[in-house]
């Protein structure tokens, strides 16, 4: 784990403790998040997951904005309980008041999408096909059935695949 992320998490907790005058339980931190999200706070597990690749590509902004963003979720949960909205007033007040940061909901990091295999299914409709994800294709293999909304026929695997 890059020490900078762990140090920034600790810094965010110290700022929150000074601001609120109380201690907070430190979270477990992981860099095993993949995909389009830069970070995720697992409130009930007191766990922060960060995207290593997005950190490496955007380290300065990531440390300045993304890490406090996710820490603020855990702090808000510990202060106000599970009934608050994820990017609601409590979280926004922590971002502004404790960290002096704009409470931006989403990052704008460039995310490289890897092409995904789609499995092509057909029905009785002319020139109609349905591109299934690998997960949905696996469900069909286990016996799940899908029907065309137009002709009501069962969708059947054509044997073809394509990259999207």
Automatic annotation (TrEMBL):
GO terms for molecular function: metallopeptidase activity. Pfam families: SprT-like. Residues 7-158 form the SprT-like domain. Keywords: Hydrolase, Metalloprotease, Protease. GO terms for biological process: proteolysis; response to stress. The keyword Chloroplast does not apply. InterPro entries: SprT-like_domain. It comes from the Bacteria. NCBIfam families: PRK04860.1 (NF003421). This is SprT family zinc-dependent metalloprotease. It comes from Stutzerimonas kirkiae.
């Amino acid at each position: 784990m890059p020490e900078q992320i762990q140090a920034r998490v600790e810094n965010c907790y110290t700022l929150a403790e000074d601001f609120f005058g109380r201690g907070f339980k430190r979270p477990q931190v992981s860099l095993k998040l993949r995909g389009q999200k830069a970070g995720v706070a697992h409130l009930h597990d007191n766990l922060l997951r960060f995207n290593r690749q997005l950190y490496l590509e955007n380290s300065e902004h990531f440390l300045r904005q993304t890490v406090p963003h996710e820490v603020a979720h855990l702090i808000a949960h510990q202060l106000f309980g599970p009934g608050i909205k994820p990017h609601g007033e409590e979280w926004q007040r922590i971002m502004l008041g404790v960290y002096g940061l704009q409470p931006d909901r989403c990052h704008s990091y460039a995310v490289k999408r890897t092409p995904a295999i789609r499995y092509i299914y057909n029905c009785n409709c002319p020139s109609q096909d349905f591109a299934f994800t690998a997960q949905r294709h696996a469900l069909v293999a286990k016996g799940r059935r899908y029907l065309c909304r137009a002709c009501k026929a069962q969708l059947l695997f054509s044997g073809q695949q394509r990259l999207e």
